[in-house]
Design goal:
This protein is mainly beta. It is globular. The termini are far apart. The chain has one helix spanning 155-164; strands spanning 4-15, 27-28, 33-45, 47-50, 58-64, 74-82, 85-92, 97-99, 112-114, 120-124, 139-147, 169-174, 199-209. It has a domain at 46-196. Strands 6, 7, 8, 9, 11 and 12 form a six-stranded antiparallel β-sheet that branches. Strands 1-13-3-2 form a four-stranded mixed β-sheet, with no helix packed on it. It contains one helix and 13 strands; from the N terminus they run E-E-E-E-E-E-E-E-E-E-E-H-E-E.
Amino acid sequence: MPSSKKLTTVLCIYLLNMPLTQADDRLRIGSKITEFSSPVELCLPEVAVRGKTFNSVGLSHYLVVPPEDHSKTGDIFVGFRLKNQPNDIWLTDGSSWWAATDENIFPQKAFKVFDKLPPFAYLEVFNNLVDVSAFVGIGEIWAGYGLRLGEGATWWDSFEEMMRNQRFKILWEIGPNLDLSESQLPLTPQHGLYESQSTICLTVTRANEQANVPCCDTAKQ
């Protein structure tokens, strides 16, 4: 069974496209805020993979920052590497990829930058469904956070701090090398998740439900 991480602080979180359960029936229509009649535990997978085939995959991750690093300046990194080239790491800002050995300050190679690191952060690693079929059995996705220690520190300083403190960990193998001859099961993206992945549980007292509003009414144009 996966382990469970609990944040002891009662948090107010944003719920996007997620059903509200055990909620008080009173809904503030104007602000779209739902008040819970009592604290509710909301549990989320640390890593979630969407998709039935490797040519259309979504990947998201909830990264938990330990209390000793809350409110410190830092960066969250998302990386890719090949299993046979473990020292060659590629970093993404969510749209482009660069070699981690490129120490240039610009462009920014962190996935997210924080003046104050939060208790946890939601990462949509693949904003859209991505074709990763070329990396099945050979690729890995990693994530972690680093601290910017000292005035003038850059993303590179933060990246090195993360690596020194071993906070960069594997999230997902893109199709691990499994022997499926006995089970006769097809290899799916979910096979790359580790059993050690945690379930993150939050205690919440209210939810602010945000709706996606279309920018334009094309029928009127």
